[in-house]
Design goal:
This protein folds into 2 domains: about 70 residues, no CATH class; about 60 residues, no CATH class. It is built from 6 helices and 5 strands; from the N terminus they run E-E-H-H-H-H-H-E-E-E-H. Helix 1 packs across helix 3. The two termini are about 15 Å apart.
């Protein structure tokens, strides 16, 4: 069976940062009682940062003051970089965002060659998914042995 084309995608450094910001929010949500008491002093800062991270996740700017940005950087410094497995999982989610609609339309997405998921971060912005499709005539010719 001939392939229709291929799908490739990239991950960017901003993806890793977003994953770390989300991990920070999760860590804050998992804090115990005494941790929460200790952070009361910086509660306003945390709430502004939480709102900014949530805005960013929703595609809004999520602007912070210089002081809040510095506080965020200090907290993020304690959050490890995403693992290669986590980055590959993000790649697979992006790939599914492309292939799932094909399946929904009953298009044989197995005929679109999927580039292996990546765990390499690019400097490019924004992250992209690239689809290269072959003309139908070429696909039919290769299926017919022409």
């Amino acid at each position: 069976m001939a392939e229709f084309g291929n799908v490739s995608f990239n991950l960017v450094k901003a993806d890793a940062r977003t994953m770390r910001e989300q991990a920070l929010l999760q860590a804050w949500g998992n804090e115990g009682f005494f941790d929460s008491l200790w952070t009361l002093v910086r509660r306003g800062t945390r709430e502004r940062i939480r709102a900014a991270i949530e805005d960013r996740a929703a595609g809004r700017p999520g602007a912070l003051s210089p002081q809040d940005t510095q506080a965020l950087e200090e907290w993020l410094a304690k959050i490890p970089e995403p693992t290669p497995e986590a980055l590959r999982a993000l790649s697979m989610q992006r790939l599914a965002a492309v292939t799932d609609p094909l399946h929904a339309e009953q298009i044989d997405a197995t005929r679109v060659v999927q580039v292996d998921p990546t765990d390499t971060l690019d400097d490019a912005e924004p992250p992209t998914v690239k689809i290269r499709l072959r003309p139908v005539k070429k696909v039919q010719e290769s299926e017919n042995g022409e």
